[in-house]
Amino acid sequence: MSSSSSSSSPILTSDQESQLVQFKEFTSYDESNEHDKVVRLLTVCNWNLEIAVARYFDNDFPTLFDDHPITPGTSSPPITIDQQQQQQQQQPINREIPLPPPQAIAFDHYPFLDLIPKLPKAIPIQNRWKNQVGLSTTNDKQLINKKMYTYLSPILFILALFPKLIYVLGIGLNKILGSFFPNLFKLLGLRDEPNDFPRKPQYLNKEEIESYDIKTYIDSIIGETTDIPIYKGLFNDAFNKSKTELKWMMCILINSECELSNKFIKSYLNNSQFIKFINDNNIILYIGDVMYPEPFEVGNCYNVLSLPYINLIANVSSTGTTFPLMSTVTKFQNFDNNLINKESFKKLIKRLQKIIDKYEPQLISQRFDQQETQFSRLIRQQQDDAYQESLLKDKLKKQKLKDEKLKLELLQKEEELIELLKIQKLKFLKLNSKKVLLNDDKPLVKGEYTTIQLRNHQGERIIKKFLKNQTLYDIFLFVECKNFIKQECESLKVSEIEFLETLNEDDYKLTEDESYEHQFKFDLVSPMPRMKLTPSKETLLKDVKELWPNGSLLIEMFEEEEEDDE
Fold first, then answer.
1. 465 — phi, psi (to 5°)?
2. Where is the sequence biased in composition, kind Low complexity (predicted)?
3. Is 546 exposed, middle or buried (0-12, 13-18, 19+ CB in 10 A)?
4. In 3D, which of 372, 365, 389, 546 has the Cα closest to residue 453?
5. What CATH code would you report for 127-148+192-370?
6. Domain locations in the chain?
7. CATH, range 439-565
8. CA 74, 80, 86 angle in degrees (round to 5)?
9. pLDDT digits 0-9 by tens, 105-160
10. Closest to 518 (Cα-Cα) out of 479, 491, 553
11. Phi then psi for 403, rounded to 5 degrees?
C-alpha cells in the first residue's frame, strides 16, 4: 500500500493491491489527492480494471464521490451497457449536481469475450545484460563460432542404434518443423542453422560495447550513409517512449555474423519504401545486433528463434473492447535466403501496413483520451496556480497595507517626539533663564568668583561673573539662555525685564516623568592657548586655569545651527 494513502482507507488484499498498482500504471492518477476516490471507484466496479479506468477518464470523476460516500465492500448491482446508455440519454448532465456513484457494467452482450485470444504481452527487458559486460574471454568467442554439438542427448544415442533411415527422417522433420521447434532439433543434434538465435552474445568487452553503433554498421553494409530513422537509445527507453506517447514501436534484430542478416539489410532496410513506411506511421524503430548483450537480451525476452527478426509493439488489445496493454501485435522471422527480394519486401510492407491500419484507431482513441486528460489536468493546474497567485497577491497587499500603517505610525511618533522635544526645550530655557539672571543681583566677595568675557561671532561682548564652585556647564547654560532671551525679546518686541516678568517658574517646571537632556549647538573656545571646553557638570571653574581668576571665551556656533537660523 502506498504511504500516501490515508489511515482510514480499508485494508486491501494482495490481489487488490496488485490491481491498484496496475490502475496507477494505466492512469497515472494523483496519488496524494485521489487515492481514496480511486479505491472507492475500484470497489464499486468490483475491481474490474477495464470498467474502473473507463469510469476514471469520465469528466465527472473529480466530483464523483464528493457528496456520495460509498462504504468499501458494497457495490450497486450490475447493469448492462444498453441500460447505462439509456439512463444517460434520459437524464441531462448537470455539472453543478454531483452524479450518482458508478455501477459495475455486466458485459451480457459479450459472453465469449474471454475466449478471444489475447495478443502476446510486450515487456521491457531486464538489466541483467549489463552484468555481462567485461566478462568476455577468447575461449568464449571460439565456443560461439564452433558447431554447437556440445551435448549429445541420450535420445540421440538411442537413435544411433537404429538404422540410418531414422536419422535421415529426423533431418527431414527438421526442414519441415525446424522453424517451429528449433530448440528441440538442436537438442537432438539435427539442427545447426547459421540463422538461429545464438546461445550467447559474442562482444562482451567494455571497449567493444562502447564502440557499438548499429547505424554505423548498417551504413557500412549498404556502402553509403542512409536516412533510416533508428532510435538512438536503449530498448527500454524506446519501449517507454512508445508506451507513454502511444506510438508504434518496431524491433528488428540481426546477427552481424550471419550472411542472411546482411542480405536483409541490403534488400529490406536499404529501401526508400521502408523508410517512408517508418516515417509515415511515426514508428519508433529499434534495431539491434544480437552479438551484443542488450539486443541479445531483447531476443531472449521475446523468445526469438531465428534471425533476422521483426516485430510490431503497441499499446492495444486484440478486440478493442478489452483494456489495452503493451502487446506484440505481429512478428516475422524464419526468413528464407532465396525469398529475400523485392516481391517479398512488398508483401511484408503491405502486411505490416494492414496490421497498423487495423489497430491504429485504438491508439488514436487513446491519444485523444490522453490529450483530454492532460488538458483537464492543465486546467486544474492553471486554476490552482491562479488561486495561489491570488492568495499571494492578497498576502502582499495586506503586508503592504500593514507596512504603510506601521510607517505612518512611526512617522507620527517621530513628529510627536520632535514636538515634545520642542516643548521640553522651551520649558527648560524659560526655567533656567530666570535662574541665570537672578544670580546677577547677589553681591559677590572678591576671590570667590571669576570674571569671564564672552564674545560671539557677531563681535558682541558680554562680561559675566561666575562663582568658583560653578561648573563649565553653567557657562554653557548662561550663553544658551542669553541667546534665547535675545531671540524672544526681538520676536515679542519687549525688553529683557518685561520678558522676565512674564516667566513663572511653576508654569515651566518639568514634570517627574519628563527626562530631558539639553543639547548645546555651539562651542566655547579659549583663544590663548586655544582650548575647546566641554559642558561638564563635574569640572569646577576654579580648577580651570584658563578661566581662573579671569578668562576670555569665544562663542562658535555650529554650522547646522547657523544654516537653520538663516
1. -95, 130
2. 70-91
3. middle
4. 546
5. 3.40.30.10
6. 14-109, 127-148+192-370, 439-565
7. 3.10.20.90
8. 110
9. 344 445 555 667 889 999 999 888 877 666 544 444 444 444 444 444 555 555 55
10. 479
11. -65, -40
